[in-house]
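Is it possible to get an amino acid sequence alongside its tokenized fold?
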Amino acid sequence: MSMTMRVIVVLSGLAIGLGAAFAQAPQPMDRKGAAVADTLRQWGMLGTWSVDCARPPSANHIHIRYVEWMGGKVMTERDYGDPKRNDSNEVINATINADRSLTLVVDFQSLGGQIRTFALMRDRPDRIRAVWNHGPDGVYTVKDGRFTGNGAETPWQYKCS
């Protein structure tokens, strides 16, 4: 084998080996996802929330988990007590506001990719409630801490875990 051929074979082997090494190397964490996770961690949002933690999840009583997935994504997992109805949706932005409320932007793939923006307030570390909530059309379902459909005050949710 000529010297040129040997060099080509060695370089080809190195290229294949490096390609395999890079393909198996862990991918870097998404900084945007990490920033969202950092914000939710700072606000104390990660974990499970419910109106009544002692009651099991059901169609009329959901438990909502905010969890950090591998790779840095933060998801909101809604548990209706029915695996066919439960869903997971990505929190794509989180901001702690000057008034200490938290604004979240969630991509609800379960609702056809509808992006909803909402703000939560808390009066203590283990208790939150919705202040406002609107869809991409700007129509509010919650405004000033009340449901727009019936005027009822949004309920307090408690941290279960």
